[in-house]
Amino acid sequence: MWADSAKLTIYALASYLPSFNPGDHPGWVVMARVWLALTPWLDPVSSLNLLSAAAGAAVVGLLFLAVVQRHGDARAAHTAAAIALVAHPLWWASTLTETYAPALALSLGCVLAASAADRRKRALLAGSLAGLALAVHAFTLFLTVPALLAVPRRRWLALVVGGVVGGAPVWLAVLGAPPDPLTGYLAGTPTSWGWHVGSFLELSRAPGGVARLLVLLLFALGPLGVLAVVFGRRGRPAGGEGPTTAAILAVVALVVVVSTYSPFRAHVMSSFLVVGGLALWPVRLGRLGRVAHILLQTGLYLLAPLAAHAVSFGDLGARHLSGRDNASYFLSPWKCCYHGPESYARALLAVVPERSLVLADFNPGAVLRLVQLRGGLRPDVEIVPTAVDDAKVAPDPAGNLAARIRAGLRSGRPVVLADSWEPYYHTRELRRLGFDLTPCGPGLLVSEGAADN
Q1: Dist CA 133 CA 29 (whole Å)
Q2: How far apart are CA 220 and CA 229, in angstroms?
Q3: Which of 80, 226, 415, 450 is the most buried if burial means most Cβ atoms within 10 Å?
Q4: Is the pTM of this model over 0.70?
Q5: Which among 132, 188, 167 has a CA at the least distance from the CA of 19?
Q6: Are 398 and 388 in contact (CB under 8 A)?
């Protein structure tokens, strides 16, 4: 799959850990290596997709247990499980290699252990799961910290010890960390953290981000899920625990962060709000209502891409990629039998000249590297998977990309652009700067030409 899925697969195959970098997910690499050892008969790429599916199933089961334990309400627990089962962000993230489902499963495990942490072993377990969850995805803090704060203070030492053990994939980086196997960069430095914050968080996005998040939550819950949230809390058994102040503040903080985060991850990051909200605020549907909800959501995800195309919004305002229909890719959680990324990578690697230098952005670049490594294809080709991303943040993106192209050509290597999407690859500006761009499979072969006046 595109982008993070390919990147994470490369990380798992290379055993890339420890790391301080927030985007490296070293805790997930630990889980992935264990999972690969348990499934030696599967192709690693398929196996890691299956890890997400297993983790997604675990989230549904653990959420059921968490609601029963917290609220003592079996109907609310069944409802939460049914809504989570077909909630778009969790289902979407459970069908391909991603960190979200494993992170949520660990977080719910922490919540369950913390609720019985008057025992030292349970407290140690809760801390360990929280530490590992943090190493898988930083956003798990919004779910685990409120649960840990509710643990009796006499058990906080056990929590800290467990957190140190579980968070080892991160803090062990103080002893040294290997270079990123995808980019070759040494990550986890202050510069790397600054780049992440500067690239992905922007307060000016908040108004539009809140509206976008509301739409995503409505899509995830569906009509019956929304009705359950609005009306389904009546008549629940007394004695259930209400959300703590820390939990409410965590939800507010999570809304702020997701709303200001780069929009391209909001559709899966909303999974933290869906799962956390269902655990905190119990809602109820009857058995027929739960079955109807599952069937209705399944149909909704099938029809949503058709509706988007019907109103001429099939691209969803997202980045175009070769062989990817954005409406189907983002709105439908099914990814079975979709081979667009691999087909793209093989098509490009089959036609690039010998010893080519391929300049890519992260979305196709990670796929190219994974297909090249896993298939042993075209070892003569050098792929720079983030060259275009580096150019994007430069003061003069087109000029920066042009300099990379000229350096490659001067070294005597053919230079190929991995794609031609104008907002990233500045093809019009490159032609004006004196480059000829000719089709090369799904990419563009670059050569020196005459500058346009």
Answers
A1: 12
A2: 12
A3: 80
A4: yes
A5: 188
A6: no
Q: Are 2 and 176 spatial neighbours (Cβ–Cβ below 8 Å)?
A: no
What pLDDT, in 10s, does the model give residues 218-249? 999 999 999 988 886 655 454 566 778 888 99
Contact between 418 and 364 (Cβ < 8 Å)? yes
In 3D space, the residue among 363, 327, 329 whose CA is nearest the CA of residue 344 turns out to be 363
DSSP state of 201: B
The answer for residues whose C-beta is within 8 angstroms of residue 221's C-beta and 6 or more apart is: 83, 87, 228, 229, 274
The residues, any chain, with a CB within 8 Å of residue 263's CB and separated by 6 or more, are 205, 209, 212
Bridge partner list, 358: 383, 416
d(CA 132, CA 172): 13
Average pLDDT, the chain: 89
d(CA 351, CA 441): 6
Is residue 313 within a helix (H) or strand (E), and if so which, with residue range? none
Determine contact, residues 32/7, Cβ cutoff 8 Å: no
**236/220 Cα distance (integer angstroms):** 23
Helix H or strand E segment including 383: strand 382-384
CA distances (Å), origin 198, targets 99, 193, 237, 344, 393:
22, 9, 47, 31, 10
What's the chain's Rg over C-alpha atoms?
23
Spell out the residues 6+ positions from residue 189 whose beta carbon is closer than 8 angstroms to its own.
20
Buried b (16+ CB within 10 A) or exposed e, 64-75: bebbbebbbbeb
What is the average per-residue pLDDT within 375-386? Answer: 90
Q: Which residue has the higher pLDDT, 407 or 203?
A: 407
Token representation of residue 55: 């983790």
* Ramachandran angles phi, psi of 446, nearest 5°: -105, 135
Please give the structure tokens belonging to residue 439. 């089709």
Through-space distance between the first and last CA atoms of the chain, rounded to whole angstroms: 41
pLDDT in tens, 94-148: 999 999 999 999 999 999 998 876 678 888 999 999 999 999 999 999 999 999 9
For 48-72, the pLDDT digits (tens) are 999 999 999 999 999 999 999 888 8
CA distance linking residue 452 with residue 300, whole number of Å: 50
